[in-house]
Automatic annotation (TrEMBL):
Keyword Transferase assigned: yes
Cofactor(s) required for function per UniProt: Mn(2+)
Tagged with keyword Manganese: yes
Biological-process GO terms, alphabetical: L-leucine biosynthetic process
PANTHER family per record: 2-ISOPROPYLMALATE SYNTHASE 1, CHLOROPLASTIC-RELATED (PTHR10277:SF9), HOMOCITRATE SYNTHASE-RELATED (PTHR10277)
Annotated stretches, region: Regulatory domain: 402-523
Protein name: 2-isopropylmalate synthase
Residue numbers binding Mn(2+): 25, 214, 216, 250
Domain Pyruvate carboxyltransferase stretches: 16-279
Organism in which the protein naturally occurs: Acetobacter nitrogenifigens DSM 23921 = NBRC 105050
Length: 523
């Protein structure tokens, strides 16, 4: 059976719409805030990836959110640009409609809670009032666009009869997509399949709309619940790159796409995502946010196609299918593990960056190349991961404070001393400080050069690759007035990597300071 949709036209029943909410739900993760330029880069990358819908933000939440949704709507082509709004919010629908006005195709996604728990304690509303708001919100949204989505927040814990009434009201009021979120990650796959099957069978008009699944990962079931939702009749999947999102995150786009591609025998549906670009977009998000995916992350983790066991290695050498259910190339990995050397030129370096999924300007290229040459002089072997680590430092857009140079003296007989050079808002600032060790001295020098009250909540060091000459990758977490950010840095010198990480985190904190903090948003 096919459905006529205002944004996509005639949609066959085997077509799955990929709705990416990295820029909305994903950005609500602590420490994951992005500035306007970064959001635009991510939105364009998502459109290039083939995401059908990009949820760009919650326009009424802040001026920054409104601006980013408006700019994404104006610039991005190829994907539907979606804005979030509360069904009963006083100005929500209007703000969302105005923000998507410049979109090639725009959607308003409005929501209200429907579970007994949320209605009693969060909304403090009776069910009949909620039904009235659902109708009013969707009617208002249709004044701005024919593409309207409605969500039953905490839908997986909503009483079945009332959920049916809510969905029926939304369809009658003009919603063209109906989303049933597992907002708190409580459901099991059997729950989600049953909910969608019930709605498809019981609700009048259910055959005229697209049903959507939005599953959170609190029990580690988000992807499983999403695939079960497809069996129940959902044909839109709401997901994020790297699975980022509130609390334990959302269903990971890359995992869902590759499950659909790999298990066509069990999940015979199509989508428009170009899977070969998954790793590139995953790395872009990690670079922008400063959060790497864990090594064993499915699809995009650096160990996803690594084999250490001798038995596994023997099998892969004879036939890769013995231990690999998909090819590395199908998601954007290269079989090459070594990269260039100290005699390599700028053109070859740029070529390698392109192969690794980076597109950077000349100034950033020059800085990255100089760091690469310096690293190649100090390391026997330079790996792809080494290149990724140093380039990530150069392509981040947080730029009020830049690291320039560091000299440290330390030993067992006297306090460590660090002399630091930073560029702050375009001006050179020098500072010298002592501390209980070289890292403490370097961090004290940063505080002297740029006074601030942020508290160091985490300091963690790991190696990018193996060996005593490996680059160090440092993560720091800064906390200020309830705002928390993570910064990352890499360098062959552990103290320099720590300073780079601290500066990165401090820049992210400044971005957070500059933005109006939105109220708690829905999942």
């Amino acid at each position: 059976m096919a459905i006529d949709h205002p944004s996509f036209g005639r949609i066959d029943d085997n077509r799955v719409i990929i709705f990416d909410t990295t820029l909305r739900d994903g950005e609500q993760s602590p420490g994951f805030s992005m500035n306007l330029d970064e959001k635009l880069r991510m939105a364009q990358a998502l459109a290039d990836l083939g995401a059908d819908v990009i949820e760009a933000g919650f326009p009424v939440a802040s001026k920054g959110d409104f601006e980013s949704v408006s700019e994404i709507a104006r610039v991005v082509r190829g994907s539907v640009v979606c804005a979030l709004a509360r069904s009963g919010g006083k100005n929500d629908i209007t703000a969302a409609g105005q923000a998507i006005a410049g979109a090639e195709r725009g959607r308003i996604h409005n929501f209200i809670s429907t579970s007994p728990l949320h209605m009693k304690y969060k909304l403090r509303m009776e069910p009949e009032t909620v039904l009235e708001i659902i109708t009013a919100g969707n009617v208002a949204a249709r004044n701005f666009t024919a593409d309207v989505e409605w969500s039953a927040e905490d839908g997986s814990r909503t009483e079945p009869d009332f959920l049916c009434r809510c969905v029926e009201a939304a369809i009658k009021a003009g919603a063209t997509t109906i989303n049933i979120p597992d907002t708190v990650g409580y459901a099991t796959p059997e729950d989600m399949e049953r909910i969608f099957s019930m709605l498809k069978e019981r609700v009048p008009g259910a055959d005229t709309v697209i049903f959507s699944a939005h599953n959170h990962n609190d029990l580690g079931l988000a992807v499983a619940n999403t695939l079960a939702s497809l069996r129940g009749g959902a044909r839109q999947i709401e997901c994020t790159i790297n699975g980022i999102g509130e609390r334990a995150g959302n269903a990971a786009l890359e995992e869902i796409v590759m499950a659909l591609r790999t298990r066509q025998d069990q999940i015979p549906y199509t989508n428009g995502v170009q899977s070969e670009k998954l790793l590139k977009v995953s790395r872009m998000l990690s670079t922008i946010t400063g959060f790497d995916v864990q090594p064993n992350k499915a699809i995009v983790g650096r160990n996803a196609f690594a084999h250490e066991s001798g038995i596994h290695q023997d099998g892969v050498l004879k036939n890769a299918a013995t231990y690999e259910i998909m090819t590395p190339e199908s998601v954007g990995w290269s079989k090459s593990s070594l990269v260039l050397g100290k005699h390599s030129g700028r053109a070859a370096f740029r070529d390698k960056l392109t192969a690794l999924g980076y597109t950077i300007g000349d100034n950033q290229l020059n800085d990255a190349f100089e760091r690469f040459k310096d690293l190649a002089d100090r390391k026997k072997v330079v790996y792809d991961d080494d290149i990724v680590a140093l380039v990530d430092d150069e392509v981040r857009d947080h730029a009020r404070i830049r690291f320039l140079a560091l000299d440290v003296s330390a030993g067992s007989r006297r306090p460590a001393e660090a002399t630091l050079e930073l560029e702050i808002d375009g001006e050179l600032v020098e500072a010298t400080a002592t501390g209980n060790g070289p890292v403490d001295a370097a961090f004290n020098a940063i505080r002297s050069a740029f006074p601030h009250e942020a508290r160091l909540a985490l300091y963690s060091v790991g190696a990018v690759t193996e060996g005593t000459d490996a680059q160090a990758r440092t993560t720091v977490r800064l906390e200020e007035d309830g705002k928390m950010v993570d910064g990352q840095g890499a360098d062959a010198d552990t103290v320099v990597s720590a300073v780079r990480a601290y500066v990165h985190g401090l820049n992210k904190l400044l971005v957070k300071r500059a933005r109006s903090e939105p109220e708690a948003l829905p999942a």
